[in-house]
Design a protein that fits this description.
The complex is a heterodimer of chains A (about 500) and B (about 625). With about 500 residues, chain A is α/β, with parallel strands linked by helices. Chain A has helices spanning about 50-55, 65-70, 75-90, 110-130, 185, 190-195, 210-220, 240-255, 310-315, 350-365, 395-400, 415-420, 455-465, 470-475, and strands at about 20-25, 40-45, 100, 135-145, 150-155, 160-170, 175, 190, 205, 225-230, 255-260, 260-270, 275-280, 285-290, 295, 300-305, 335-340, 380, 390, 405-415, 430-435, 445-450. Helix content of chain A is about 30%, strand content about 25%. Chain A has a five-stranded mixed beta barrel. A five-stranded parallel β-sheet of chain A has the order 8-15-9-10-11. In chain A, helix 3 packs across helix 4 (about 110-130). Chain A is globular and about 65 Å long. Chain B has about 625 residues and is an alpha/beta fold. Chain B has four domains: about 30-130, Glutaredoxin, CATH 3.40.30; about 140-290 and about 420-480, FAD/NAD(P)-binding domain; about 305-415, 3-Layer(bba) Sandwich (FAD/NAD(P)-binding domain), CATH 3.50.50.60; about 505-605, FAD/NAD-linked reductase, C-terminal dimerisation domain (Enolase-like, domain 1, 2-Layer Sandwich). In chain B, strands 5, 6, 8, 9, 10, 11 and 22 form a seven-stranded mixed β-sheet that branches. A five-stranded parallel β-sheet of chain B has the order 13-20-14-15-16. Classes of the chains: A alpha/beta (about 500), B alpha/beta (about 625). Strand 3 of chain A pairs antiparallel with strand 7 of chain B, so a sheet runs across the interface. Chain B: Its main location: cytoplasm. Chain B: Its EC number is 1.8.1.9. Chain B: Its cofactor is FAD.
């Protein structure tokens, strides 16, 4: 869930001879009308309610106002994931000598309130930060009048016109609802809602196989809720498929139910308030039915571009995805209009990616540097119950690019030390390093499934960025006892067909 | 600098392999000469046929042709093709009284030059010497079945060698002993991390309520349950080591090894039965054991980390003596499971580590209920009451003045350092030098002692790191160099490590102090920040406590030469950065890398504030 926080701040050329006049509009812009001389009001105008836009204008502060990440994305998601992990810890604790009750109930209200309070405090913090940076934040909805002028409408309906030399679109995306399923919109919710529910969602059907779907299903299961995931085809499209199936295998063995190859056809509210969902099994064509308290759609996200009147500015979009077409400079079909983050076609929907793209764009616009955003080797982590961290190419992609005979895959199933005493199942704790086969075997991708995958992956992402080879990774001494050290101990190639299970130290 | 051994192209018999020559030695000083001598003896020792020759010398060529025609593998050092050939020739003449080449050795016997070799061939002596296959029982005997020793033994066995491991745990003064696997598995990393995990779970339990999990009573901890579970796990590891040795046909003997003469070791088992074994090569991997204070009552009443992890009763109110990482880790998890813990520190915390980080580790512990008594040393321990645990009175005196103090504890844990197990293994019988003061064994860059056929790995090494993975790496690479076709040496630079204190401290590369000493302060830029892990926010845990710091060399492209993190999962975070440092990590690369959100590790991709700027690094509360 990338959020583009528009970040506007005074961008200065070196020596501060020239101060950029910058505006950020979360969903819109308010400003003075175009001045008489035909000069534009601002050098840079950012349209964006997410996190990416804000980064464009101010260098230094990382998170802007709210946006998806803070409000309905990474932050509440990871906190609820943490709540679920703590449930595991409570179950681990007796093995380590702690005397705790067998069945510990979970109070959704209490968790949600704590999570929401934290998010609100972040919103406040961001506002204060923007003030500190002498950036004004306006809550207005924006649309293009022409290629230099944007019209902003306040909640009260008041219109203002604003013109700028450069315009950055960073409006992000919102969860998509299915359009052809009866009752979907009325009775279903999305990730925009789940984190703000005051009451427990109860028995939940999660529709979709995106990482949002699996993460939500994961923590709901972890919070002891009856959870089912319905997916049409494969999980985590675009990610390494071996890893993806291990992720779902782990979830399935920890209580999440899966309905594979199914699509919902109807959602009906029953008199008792429960939701009756009808679905179709695509293989057999049979219909089936089940009742749930909550139906969560996580079938993808749509960019917030349609209300922008992009055609008036001449900005081209992909007619299917409605995402804005951009080049390596993040420029759209109109050279002085740029798009970053989820609204841009072909970009990973990740907060830090959007933030960095925004920052680099701003630096280019004010002439501080000419560095382009590197969209390869973007590390990310899926916070499913067993976390999946990755950077670089999936095995499929490596094979597609280099050919199977040029790719060497090192892999291992390992057992985290902490799992032993806790008697936890480690069948899916797995590491895979995808390398070029020719010495020194450049690392193309790293895939790590296990606890703290995000923490493990970050440093290796740096290593890959530094051009690490398999040889160099092997020369690095491990930190004992950690899970990350298993990466530095990978010895078995897939090609060898040898048993990849790590035994002993 | 010496070059590498080169065979004559085309004339090499199949399977003959070239050995590396040793780099980095200048043969001017007496020390370097001694080193060269040792290496030459090593070559003679290591090769069935060793020929010192010159590539253009016709006599040398004849000798090589002779061995080729006999189908015998040989190794050559061409003195004219190495930079320091003249020095080699001199040292050889000291060893053999022969100044000319070729200079031929067969099965460690000095054969002589070309004529002598051909005479020996005619008389049949050469064939006899060649037939004399290894006169030793084993190719390799490893003394000590810890991480380094086992890694070396197993690797040598994989390479087809006949290997024995001697492992014997001398019981601690309290009577504790354990199985195969050495310190790490039995009384080190493994049980330590598991007890640390128990303590972290205690923290998780209290966090969990903030995250909506509901239970009423304060969770109590049961020491016996924990210890039993951990000991069961260790038992399974001991077993898996034995199985693994058996699978690789390594002879494992549970006896105490002691050199009696060259190439010969005496093994004494628990019943006092003695057996002698011989081997071509030996590896000393005997490790270290905790040190005692040498004061009244210490061995009688105090325990060490050797005893703690299998202690059959809860230690109760505990005094930890020392400020090593062992001391702080033990103090940390004991407090974490709810015990009253005091740490008595003579001088600094975590000597050798970055002192700013060390102080932060200490202050976090202090804020979380662990008491520190600074600048005191115990002078007497007295038993007040017997029991499990009993009651002990500790008298301590100030290191700065005449002040003394007394305290009563259930348990006193000594963690003041460790001593190498090198003084009672007969090293003097075969002339292996140790540092008399520390007991450590000096080795060269290929882990070889002053006695060419004796090597050492692990904690017994002088000036090397005392870390399990380092010992494993060193042991494995040593076996590959001795018996395989590998040349790679153990790299002791930029080794990452993590101290598993309540707030974990991970680091790689130089401490700030060391960096300043090596590079001068003005050439460095230090970037740092506090950070607040997302999971801590809702849990209401301290802000401005977790801390990240990197040290960059300004005049080498801002290359990162020191990496330090204080925070949860520091070990997991640090590992990947260590790989990056191996690959030449710079500040620019950190800035260019996208963070993984929300993690602690991502803090390193957004470091902006330099220490020299003096700017505030505290995180604003929301």
């Amino acid at each position: 869930m990338a959020a583009m926080a528009g970040r506007a701040a005074a961008l200065r050329r070196s020596g501060a001879r020239f101060r950029w006049r910058t505006r950020v509009a979360a969903g819109g812009v308010r400003g003075a009308a175009q001045n008489a001389a035909g000069r534009q009001d601002y050098d840079l105008l950012v349209i964006g309610g997410g996190s990416g836009g804000l980064a464009c204008a101010k260098e230094g502060t990382r998170w802007g106002l709210g946006g998806t990440c803070v409000n309905v994305g990474c932050i509440p998601k990871k906190l609820m994931h943490q709540a679920a992990l703590l449930g595991d810890r409570i179950r681990d604790a007796p093995h380590y000598g702690w005397e705790v009750p067998q069945q510990v109930p979970h109070d959704w209200r209490k968790m949600a309130e704590a999570v929401q309070n934290h998010v609100k405090s972040l919103n406040w913090g961001h506002r204060v930060q923007l003030q500190d940076r002498k950036v004004k934040y306006f809550n207005i909805k924006a649309s293009f009048v022409n290629e230099h002028v944007v019209c902003g409408v306040t909640k009260g309906g008041k219109e203002t016109l604003l013109s700028a030399e450069h315009i950055v679109i960073a409006t992000g995306g919102r969860p998509r609802y299915p359009t052809n399923i009866e009752g979907a919109l009325e009775h279903g919710i999305t990730s925009d809602d789940i984190f703000w529910l005051k009451e427990s969602p109860g028995k939940t059907l999660v529709v979709g196989a995106s990482y949002v779907a699996l993460e939500c299903a994961g923590f709901l299961t972890g919070l002891s809720l009856d959870t089912t995931v319905m997916m049409r085809s494969i999980p985590l499209r675009g990610f390494d498929q071996q890893m993806s199936s291990l992720v779902t295998e782990h979830m399935a063995s920890h209580g999440t139910q899966f309905l594979r190859g199914c699509t919902p056809s109807r959602v009906k509210k029953l008199p008792d308030g429960q939701l009756q969902v009808t679905w179709k099994d695509l293989a057999s064509g049979r219909e089936d039915m089940g009742t749930f308290d909550t139906v969560l759609w996580a079938i993808g996200r749509v960019p917030e571009t349609r209300s922008l009147n992009l055609e008036k500015a001449g900005v081209n979009t992909n007619p299917n995805t409605h995402k804005i077409l951009v080049d390596a400079q993040e420029a759209t079909s109109v050279p002085h209009i740029y798009a970053i983050g989820d609204a841009a076609e072909g970009r990973p929907e990740l907060t830090p990616t959007a933030t960095m793209a925004g920052r680099l764009l701003a630096q280019r616009l004010c002439g501080q540097s000419s560095d382009l955003m590197d969209y390869d080797n973007v590390p990310t982590t899926v916070f499913t119950p067993l976390e999946y961290g990755c950077v670089g190419l999936s095995e499929e992609e490596a094979v597609a690019r280099h050919g199977e005979e040029h790719v060497e895959v090192y892999h291992a199933f390992y057992k985290p030390l902490e799992f032993t005493v806790a008697e936890r199942d480690s069948s899916q704790c797995y590491i895979k390093m995808v390398c070029l086969r020719e010495p020194p075997q450049l690392v193309l991708g790293l895939h790590f499934l296990g606890p703290n995958a995000g923490e493990v992956t970050q440093g290796f992402a740096l290593g890959i960025k530094c051009g690490a080879s398999y040889t160099q990774v092997m020369r690095t001494v491990g930190i004992h006892p950690t899970c990350a050290e298993e990466v530095a101990k990978l010895r078995i190639t897939k090609r060898s067909g040898l048993e990849p299970t790590v035994t002993g130290c | 600098r010496l070059g590498s051994v080169r065979g004559v192209p085309g004339s090499s018999p199949p399977g003959r392999r070239a050995r590396p020559w040793f780099p980095g030695i200048s043969c001017t000083s007496a020390e370097a000469r001694e080193e060269l001598r040792r290496r030459l003896l090593g070559l003679i020792e290591d090769n069935r046929v060793m020929i010192f020759s010159k590539s253009y010398c016709p006599h040398s060529t004849r000798v090589k042709e002779l061995f080729s025609s006999l189908g015998v593998e040989y190794n050559i050092l061409e003195l004219d093709q190495v930079d320091d050939g003249a020095s080699v020739q001199e040292v050889l003449s000291e060893i053999t009284n022969q100044i000319t080449v070729p200079n031929v050795f067969v099965n460690k016997v000095h054969m002589g030059g070309c004529d002598r070799t051909f005479q020996a061939h005619q008389s049949g002596l050469l064939q006899k010497l060649l037939q004399k296959e290894s006169a030793y029982d084993y190719d390799l005997i490893v003394i000590g079945g810890g991480s380094g020793g086992l890694a070396c033994a197993q690797e040598a066995a994989i390479l087809g060698k006949k290997v024995m491991v001697l492992d014997f745990v001398v019981p601690s003064p309290q009577g504790t002993s354990w199985g195969l696997g050495g310190t790490c598995v039995n009384v080190g990393c493994v049980p330590k991390k598991l007890m640390h995990q128990a303590a972290l779970l205690g923290q998780a339990l209290s966090d969990s309520r903030k995250f909506g999990w509901e239970y009423n009573q304060q969770a109590k901890h049961n020491w016996e349950t924990m210890t039993e579970a951990i000991q069961n796990h260790i038992g399974s590891l001991n077993w898996s080591y034995r199985v693994s040795l058996r699978e690789k046909a390594v002879a494992y003997v549970n006896s105490y090894g002691e050199f009696v003469e060259h190439h010969k070791i005496k093994a004494t088992n628990r019943k006092g039965q003695e057996t002698c074994y011989t081997a071509a090569k030996f590896v000393i991997a005997t490790g270290e054991r905790p040190r005692y204070l040498g004061i009244q009552g210490d061995k009688e009443y105090c325990i060490t980390s050797d005893d703690l992890f299998s202690l059959p009763y809860c230690p109760g109110k505990t005094l930890v003596v020392g400020a090593s990482y062992v001391a702080l880790e033990c103090a940390g998890f004991l407090a974490g499971i709810g015990l009253d813990v005091t740490v008595m520190v003579r001088s600094v915390l975590l000597r050798g580590f970055d002192q700013e980080m060390a102080e932060k580790v200490g202050s976090y512990m202090e804020q979380h209920g662990i008491k520190f008594l600074r600048k005191f040393i115990p002078v007497m321990v007295q038993q007040l009451e017997k029991g499990l645990p009993g009651k002990l009175k500790v008298v301590a005196k100030s290191t700065e003045g005449p002040e003394t103090m007394e305290g009563v504890y259930n348990t006193v844990l000594l963690a003041i350092g460790r001593d190498s197990c090198t003084r009672k293994i007969g090293l003097e019988k075969i002339g292996v030098k140790i540092n008399e003061k520390t007991g450590k064994i000096p080795v060269n860059d290929v882990e070889q002692t002053n006695v060419p056929y004796v090597y050492a790995v692990g904690d017994v090494l002088e000036g090397k790191l005392e870390l399990t993975p380092v010992a494993i790496q060193a042991g494995k690479l040593l076996a590959r160099r001795l018996f395989g076709d590998h040349l790679e040496k153990c790299d002791y630079i930029n080794v990452p490590t993590t101290v598993f204190t309540p707030l974990e401290y991970g680091c790689c590369g130089l401490s700030e102090e060391k960096a300043i000493e090596v590079y001068k302060k003005e050439n460095l830029e230090v970037y740092h920040t506090f950070f607040w892990p997302l999971e801590w926010t809702v849990a209401g845990r301290d802000n401005n406590t977790c801390y990240a710091k990197i040290i960059c060399n300004k005049f080498n492209n801002n290359r990162v030469i020191g990496f330090h993190i204080l925070g949860p999962n520091a070990g997991e975070v640090t590992q990947g950065f260590a790989v990056a440092m191996k690959c030449g990590l710079t500040k620019q690369l950190l800035d260019d890398t996208i963070g993984i959100h929300p993690t602690c590790g991502e803090v390193f991709t957004t470091l902006e504030i330099t220490k020299s700027s003096g700017l505030d690094i505290s995180q604003k509360g929301c």
